[in-house]
Amino acid sequence: MIDLHTHLDLYPNALDILDRVNRENLFTLAVTTSPRAWVATSKVFKRHNNIKVALGLHPEVADQKFNELELLLSSIHKVDFVGEVGIDGSARYSKTLSKQELIFESTIRECEKAGGRIISIHSRGAVSKILSSIRTYKNCGTPILHWFSGSVEELTTAIRMKCYFSVNPVMISSEKGKELISRIPYNLVLPESDGPFAKLAGRPVMPWEAMNICSDLSRIWQMPIELVKNIIEQNFKKLLQEMQVIV
Ligand SMILES: [Zn+2]
């Protein structure tokens, strides 16, 4: 099992599920919402070899955590993975938009300076902004657009720019999600849970359930599930190879 985007530190029973996540998943990327959370989580998860902690500053808390930006920027050279970062263009966060944009831009500029990083990106209502920043800092690394919810046109541009897309079981259960996913080339799809935020039937999606997307993918792609799993695993390997990350 593989999960490229989970808020593992935010599950109410995080410490109780760590062993299971580490055992069942070949690889789990635990994204964080603030640089200080990254420091704390990295300490707690240290002994779990299959779990990697990404350095993040979530756009929804851009205002509250703005004073941690320096810690974020000065830590990028130490990590392979950055996330969750991005911009949220929905009305609820419009007041903090300029702060969000400043944080995102300076983060990917720093990623470029550091030689490129694997970056898990939140792009709700802000895909065009995200893509134009990535174009500006085109050596920032490998962007993974997590839970993509933009338009078909934006999707097409992101595909042309060779972004990856991490897809979760909630996204793939909606009609819009299925429609978007059907347009993504096989070699750019990765699995995520986005738990505990992503919920199915009122229950958080667990990190070992991220790969459940394969059954829906097998219907969308019209190919046997074993082949789907194979493609997803190859995509994951290629992602690491491109950025020369060894896990
Ligand atoms: Zn998330």
Task: Give an overview of the whole structure.
The chain is α/β, with parallel strands linked by helices. The chain has a single domain, classed as Metal-dependent hydrolases (TIM Barrel). The chain is 40% helix and 17% strand. The chain has helices spanning 14-24, 35-45, 69-75, 97-113, 127-136, 152-160, 175-181, 213-221, 225-242; strands spanning 2-6, 27-30, 51-53, 81-86, 117-122, 141-146, 164-167, 189-191, 199-200, 203-204. The strands form three sheets. The protein has a five-stranded parallel sheet, with helices on both faces. Helix 2 (35-45) links the parallel strand 2 and strand 3 (51-53). Helix 8 packs across helix 9 (225-242). The longest helix has 18 residues, at 225-242. The structure holds zinc ion. Zinc ion (ZN) binds at residues 5, 7, 31, 84, 194, 197.
The proportion of residues in beta strands is 15-25%
- Tell me the name of the CATH homologous superfamily: Metal-dependent hydrolases
Overall average residue pLDDT:
97
Radius of gyration: 17 Å
Gap from first CA to last CA: 15 Å
- Domain count: 1
Q: Briefly, what CATH class? A: Alpha Beta
Which ions and ligands are bound to the chains? Answer: zinc ion
- The parts where pLDDT drops under 50 for at least 5 residues are none
What profile does the largest beta sheet have? 5 strands, parallel
Shape: globular
- Percent of residues in helices comes to 40-55%
